[in-house]
Design a protein that fits this description.
single chain, 242 residues, Methyltransferase, Cobalt-precorrin-4 Transmethylase, Domain 2, 2 domains, five-stranded parallel sheet
Length: 242
C-alpha cells in the first residue's frame, strides 16, 4: 500500500505562523521533502523536530523525483515543504504533486500560511475576480505579461503577483502602463521583523521608486481606480434600504 504525500504550509516569516497540525505532520512523517534543507532545518530546530530531510527544488533532476515517488509507493509517508508558505504555488512542488497524483498516490493538503492570501486579507478590496500570476518572467515575455495585466485590470480584476527585490524598481516603472490613479499595494517581508506595506497610485514618480527598499520578496496587488472596496459596497446597500 502506498504512503501519503502531505503538502505542508510553513511560515512565510514569523516561525509562530504554523498550525499544530503542520507540526504534528512534520514530526510523524518518515521524510520531509523540502526546497532547501538549510531553510527547513531552521524551522525544525525551533520546534525540536528530528525528521530526516531530502531536497527537491527547481534544479532537481528526474532521478530525484523518481526516488521520492518510489518511496511513496513503498509505503513511506512524506511531507512536502517549500522554503516558505504553501507548496505548489509558484514553486516546483506542483510538479511533484502531479507525479504523485498520476501514480495513484494519496495527496493531503495541510493548509496554512500563504503570501497570496495574507496580502488579499488586508487589501480591503473586492472585485469581479482575482488573477494570481505567481512570479513574472525575468526577461522573455515580460513586456507581453504587462500588456496582459493592463487588459485584465481594465476588466475589473484584482491582479496579484510576486516579485524579487532585484526587479522591484524596474517592475514599478513598468506598471506606469496602467490607467492613472490605479492602486498599487506593495507587501514587503510579510510577517517578518521588517514587514512593510506601501500604497502607491499611478503614475509612480521616480522619487517614490527610489525610496522603495529593495530587500526581501514582494507581493504586489493591483486595482484599477474606481472599483469600490467591499465596505463601500455594503454601506451603499444599507443606505439604499433605509
Amino acid at each position: 500500500m502506498s504512503g501519503i504525500l502531505y503538502v505542508v504550509a510553513t511560515p512565510i516569516g514569523n516561525l509562530k505562523d504554523i498550525t499544530l497540525r503542520a507540526l504534528e505532520t512534520l514530526k510523524e512523517v518518515d521524510l520531509i521533502v523540502c526546497e532547501d534543507t538549510r531553510v527547513t532545518a531552521t524551522l525544525l530546530r525551533h520546534y525540536e523536530i528530528k525528521t530526516k530531510m531530502i531536497s527537491f527544488h527547481q534544479h532537481s533532476r528526474i532521478k530525484r523525483v523518481d526516488l521520492i515517488i518510489n518511496k511513496l509507493k513503498d509505503g513511506f509517508d512524506l511531507a512536502l515543504a517549500t522554503d516558505s508558505g504553501t507548496p505548489g504555488i509558484s514553486d516546483p512542488g506542483s510538479f511533484l504533486v502531479k507525479r504523485a497524483i498520476d501514480g495513484k498516490i494519496r495527496v493531503i493538503p495541510i493548509p496554512g500560511p500563504s503570501a497570496l492570501t495574507a496580502a488579499l486579507s488586508v487589501s480591503g478590496v473586492a472585485s469581479k475576480g482575482i488573477l494570481f500570476l505567481g512570479f513574472l518572467p525575468k526577461k522573455k515575455g515580460r513586456q507581453k505579461k504587462f500588456r496582459e495585466i493592463l487588459a485584465f485590470i481594465n476588466q475589473g480584476l484584482i491582479i496579484v503577483f510576486y516579485e524579487s527585490p532585484y526587479r522591484i524598481k524596474k517592475t514599478l516603472s513598468d506598471l506606469n502602463i496602467l490607467p492613472d490613479k490605479s492602486e498599487i499595494t506593495l507587501f514587503r517581508e510579510i510577517s517578518k521583523k521588517f514587514e512593510e506595506t506601501i500604497y502607491l497610485k499611478t503614475p509612480i514618480n521616480q522619487n517614490q521608486i527610489a525610496n522603495i527598499k529593495d530587500k526581501g520578496e514582494f507581493t504586489i496587488l493591483l486595482k484599477q481606480n474606481g472599483i469600490s472596496n467591499q465596505k463601500s459596497q455594503i454601506s451603499n446597500e444599507i443606505s439604499n434600504t433605509q
